[in-house]
Design goal:
mainly alpha, single chain, rod-shaped
């Protein structure tokens, strides 16, 4: 029967903590870039809607001017 060792490797724990910090930093960067892209897509959608509205208004004006 082998007894489990209670010896803790502190160097390994420090390395693990460092990699966790790096992982957290990477996740934060990715999330921030995701938010920027999401906001950009929403802005693009708003721009497309405005363009469509302007186009429809222009077409209505043309039809009205032809009728007059």
């Amino acid at each position: 029967m082998a007894l489990k060792s209670n010896i803790v490797d502190h160097e390994k724990e420090e390395e693990d903590e460092g990699s966790n910090d790096e992982d957290i930093a990477l996740i934060k960067r990715n999330f921030k870039s995701f938010l920027k892209k999401k906001q950009g897509e929403e802005g693009l959608q708003e721009g497309l809607v405005q363009r469509r509205e302007k186009g429809v208004n222009y077409m209505l004006q043309c039809k009205k001017s032809r009728l007059i």
